[in-house]
Each structure stands twice: as structure tokens, then as C-alpha cells.
Fold:
Amino acid sequence: MDADGQVFPVHRFPADGVEYTGLAVEDVARASFPLVIDPSVFFGSVGDAYITAFAGSYATTRSTSTSFDFGTADMFIGQAFQSAIPRYHTFRSVIKFSLASLNPLAVIYAATLQMACVVDVSTLADFNVQIIKQDWSAQDPLSNGNREAVYDACLAGTMDVVWRNTNGLPMNTLISSPGLDVNWLVPGGQAYYSLRGSRDAAGNAPASNGNEYVRLAAAAHSTPALRPMLMVDYFAVPSATGRLVQPSPRVRIQDTRIKLRARRRKTLLTAQNREA
Structure:
């Protein structure tokens, strides 16, 4: 944002393993200074968990949870089937971030969720890992008494974006999601999400014995570089509400012009002069 209140898009680009943020040269050229470029900010997960369901009926596993794990190293997303028992399994996860450090009047214009897969056992079928806009603040902290409400709401919730398909999913690498819905994010507040598999969402049961789930690194993972991060781009709020005006300095130039001054000549008139 420049001194006239013009807002310019901030561009991000990677180079040599480093992600840079900046403005286009033509935008800088037409900006009124001073010019403020707000940086990207990263928020680590401040709470995550996965909820499990298992039963002999696939429909029951999708509608009734059995347990949850909070603060573990990994988050589970997907399904599995044990034909020998027989028993179906369903895994859904939740995650939250604190945006308390952002000024409540700041404007968020872009955000992505970065996560890393540490185990991929989607051998039966590949699926999409969906990021769900689910406000589970009423059930925070998670407990056995409220986990069912969170589990059901994850299935019924509105998808924000697909983080990634499990086909060819790189291991132990932070991968950014497509751009998230910034209207879901509140500066100074909390950001709540859940994670589910697309085959779970569609009600596609595992076709045979085996697994179709992944494990993503959680906030308690032993490798900090793999922990989930919410990256947010935002505009800071100017300190004053009025338009910033830069007074133009006054320059005084010495007058070097040649000044001509005429002196009046006194002429004495004599009698001789008068006679002439």
C-alpha cells in the first residue's frame, strides 16, 4: 500500500530453495512513497488430532466414531478394511491455528496450508485429501464427550480446497495447498479446519482387504520442518486514518541577477551657460 492508499499485488516466487516476496517494478514506479510492503507470515499448528471409527458395517464407521488421539505425532486421513474380522476403519483429522498476532483490522488477501505426508499406505485406491472449513471451536478442547460432533461435522462440512491427491505423493516434504478461502480467516482470531479423504466423503468403501489412508505430520512431530504451517499474506493497517501527505521542501535560490542603478548627475548652471 502506498501513501495514496493504492494497493498493489504482492508476488511470490521461489529461487534456489528460498521463497521471495515483492512488487512488480512497474507498480513501484507508479507508487506514491512511502510504500509499505507487508511480508508473509507463517503460523504453526496449535492443536490437532485424529478421530477413528471402526465397525463391521461401513455405514456405521462413517457415522459413529470410536476414539480420538490429540497431540500425537501424525494425523490420519482415509480408510481401511480388515477382511478377516471383518472390520472397516475410517480416519478424519482436525487442526487449528492461532492468528492472535495479527492486528484485528489487518486485511488477509492470500493463504495456503502446508503439510507433509510421512506415511502413504493408499495401496487399495488413491484419493484426494480435502481441507474442510469446519469450525470446531465449540468442541475445543476435544474430548470423548464431544468427538462425535466433530467427526460428523467433518463429513458434512464444506470443502475449501483439495490439498493433494495421494497418487505419487512425495514423502517428508512440505507441500502447499492451493489458495484457501480468506473469508474463513479472522485476523486476531483462531482458524479451524478438518481433513478428510474424498472416498470417505463420497461413501466409497474399500473394495477389498487393505489400506487407503495417509499419515500427515502433526504439530508434535519430531521433525519441526515437517509440521503443518498456515501461510498468510496480509495488508497491515496504516497508523493513521487520514491520507499521509509529504510536505514539499521549500528551496531558496539566491538572486544572482545584475542590478543596474542610475545616479542622478548634478549639473551646475553658470551665467555663461545660460547666455549660450
Confidence is low (pLDDT under 50) at residues 239-251, 269-276. DSSP finds five helices and 13 strands in the chain. Residues 40-233 form one domain.
